[in-house]
Amino acid sequence: xxxxxxxxxxxxxxxxxxxxxxxxxxxxxxxxxxxxxxxxxxxxxxxxxxxxxxxxxxxxxxxxxxxxxxxxxxxxxxxxxxxxxxxxxxxxxxxxxxxxxxxxxxxxxxxxxxxxxxxxxxxxxxxxxxxxxxxxxxxxxxxxxxxxxxxxxxxxxxxxxxxxxxxxxxxxxxxxxxxxxxxxxxxxxxxxxxxxxxxxxxxxxxxxxxxxxxxxxxxxxx
Length: 222
Fold this sequence. Notes:
By secondary structure, the protein is an alpha/beta fold. The chain is 35% helix and 19% strand.
């Protein structure tokens, strides 16, 4: 049984989310500490971990964890103290951009949808080009093959802002999980002002799962 690695936070909401996912997806849970992040990649490889859940106590912690998780081959979920004790996953919030790596969101979102028997809400950016629409069509083919329920909503923001828009639109809906991609590289603006994923995590309260843009990702589960 593959483990979920769980970093506790003040209200232990990260453990609540870890228990919820472990029960539905047949994982075990292993608690980790701050010192484990010094060698988090090796720890994940050695334990064949399926998922990392990071409990946040403060927005000041976000960038430090983002920096340590940039090379991970598994998804990692940020959980704040504010989520309710009766949290459940009843909807997958899935914004899709024009980047090629967005298609990596498909297997992970479909896995959650199957195990939690919940729909997927796809957010389509207001782009001039067709790349995002093509990515969404690929998602739909996958979801249709698995008989999953989904809807597509058109956003007001382009690919640069659709992930934050989707998060904010669902910020007051308790039983959601948001799936986004981590930045490929940090540019100068990202280093000075922070990458887009930090802004998303900072401004939303729902659990947010990040997927790194790399071609050798571990599958979450069968």
